[in-house]
Amino acid sequence: MDIIGIDLGTTNSVATVYTEDGLKHISFDGDFLLPSVVNISNDGVMVGVKAKNMAMIAQENTAISVKRLMGTKETLTLNGKKFTPQEISSFIIKKIKETAEQEMDMEYKRCVVTVPAYFNENQRDATTQAVKLAGLEVLRVINEPTAAAISYGANRDEDILYGVYDLGGGTFDISIIENSEGLIEVLATKGDNHLGGDDFDKKLANLIWEKSGFDIELTKKLEIKLNQLAEKTKIALSNEDSVHIDEKFFAKKDGEALHLEVDVTKEEFEELIKEDIDRTIDLLLETLEESNNDIDDLEAIILTGGSSRIPLITNQILERTEKLPVLIEDPDKSVSIGAILQGAMIEGVDTDSILVDITPYSLGISTLKDEFSFDLILSKIILKNTPVPTSKTSRYYAMVEYQKKFQIDIYQGEDEENLDANVKIGEMLLTIENPVENGAIDVDFRLNQDGMLSVVGREIHTNEIVKGEFKTKVAKSTKHSNVKEMDILTEHDKVIVEKIDKILENDTILDEDKEDLKELKEKFVSAKSEEKASLEEEIIDSIFFLEGA
Ligand code: AMP
């Protein structure tokens, strides 16, 4: 099967393929987690753990957490070139495709890619574009919690109602799901696209910084190092009551090394994130209510996503709902497992489950509040929590006689009275060639299984089909994109060596430091590949220190 299941995460991405012997996770530099980090140098594009290392010494050419920008018009300039978020994401997917092909010795042409349930049309569209730019066909876009549910539900016969609580690096999703006779149905879903482990890292980084007592400026560079340290500390605090941080050469002041020595307790960390966790549980309860169930109906709460390993989550859920949540086996892998299982189902492999997904937002167009005012309101066409694919048509009447043009502004959201509280996802102009005195149009919304919306308008009297151009707000990658020609590097030794050489030319650096670095360089150049990773870390730490923050 030439399909890859891709969990395109904010912090890490995971890819799974289907083989005759079962599922297989693709391995990137020895790990199934591929850091979603992209570094652009003159030599090419580096993706993954090595790009993450580069974030410390070449942050201006490195993109992290680009998923947060998907669907926006923002661009990133890396190594002097401008990229859209979808172009950056496409490098991650290209890396996945190439690594999978090398590892499995076959060509992969299609993929099932996952997105947070709460992603809007623009964000889904940007994700699809990223996949295409990477040279893969999108077989299906599915929601992350649904994918987790598929992996949980696979090989399970019982009919149950459960919640999937998915807290990753950058996003939170909650879905209420029903398994009934092999049918996996998402009853309701909610989420927050800006809440996840990265936010916890930032809060912890602030605390560590406060405790350090350093009176130096926290530069962008130091901030990246501090965040990485905070993430390590956070992960350790999932298993330990307190962590002792001891970094001898953390920063530099007036040429002297600053020693970072700080203790952080689990209690302090929990205090920082308690409000966020409480909010996720509020959302869980709201979603449950929307699905017309209450907490007693819920048979299980499944935790997935890397951040759900934080023990406070289990404790708080238990305290507030009196249900003990279960951490899904392999929370990092479950989404990509669900994605590949979905791919297998589409291919006709019998996995005993059928998927029903829903739209997390209502979709509609703006209309006048009434004939006496110019106030605009939202007229919903497709309601939230409707299973997809779905289509619905609504009729709208002309404002003036012989109206020639109908401007259709498409929105998603729930607030009917206050149009601005909703998100505009596109607009189109329907031009009527032969207007009638009392014109009216039917607006047809079709939402496909990938959550993509297409809109068609038709004049009802003349039966004249009017065609409108659907424009989303996404900065589309145009033909000019040079993503396809840019090589994904498998090693970046040259970039590291060039960086070292630049430091060696720097007159402000002490000779003895240069000698140490030279020695490291020689070791690195002649090292075998398995020794390279640790040497690279050492070099990066040393460059970071010598360059000063
Ligand atoms: P995901 O997007 O599902 O891969 O989740 C990534 C997030 O999970 C990152 O913010 C990680 O720092 C976080 N994470 C991974 N393992 C743990 C752990 N044991 N404790 C707390 N957070 C973790």
Detailed description of the structure:
This protein is an alpha+beta fold and about 550 residues long. The protein folds into 3 domains: about 280 residues, ATPase, nucleotide binding domain (Nucleotidyltransferase, domain 5); about 110 residues, Substrate Binding Domain Of DNAk, Chain A, domain 1; about 55 residues, no CATH class. The chain has 12 helices and 28 strands. The strands form 7 sheets. Strands 18-17-12-13-14-19-22 form a 7-stranded mixed β-sheet. Strands 1, 2, 3, 4, 10 and 11 form a 6-stranded mixed β-sheet that branches. The chain has a 4-stranded antiparallel β-sheet with strand order 21-20-24-25, with no helix packed on it. It starts with a strand and ends with a helix. About 0% of the residues have low confidence. The structure holds adenosine monophosphate. The site of adenosine monophosphate (AMP) has 18 residues, from α5 and α6.
Write the SSE topology.
Layout: E1 3-7, E2 12-19, E3 22-25, E4 34-35, E5 38-41, E6 44-47, H1 49-57, E7 62-63, E8 76-78, E9 81-83, H2 85-104, E10 110-115, H3 121-133, E11 137-143, H4 144-153, E12 160-167, E13 172-180, E14 183-192, H5 197-212, H6 220-237, E15 242-253, E16 256-265, H7 266-290, E17 300-304, H8 311-321, E18 326-327, H9 334-346, E19 354-358, E20 363-368, E21 376-382, E22 387-388, E23 390-397, E24 405-412, E25 423-431, E26 440-447, E27 453-459, E28 465-466, H10 493-504, H11 511-526, H12 529-547
Helix pairs in contact: 1-12, 2-3, 4-9, 5-6, 7-8, 10-11, 10-12, 11-12
Bound molecules: adenosine monophosphate (AMP).
The site of adenosine monophosphate has 18 residues, from helix 5 and helix 6.
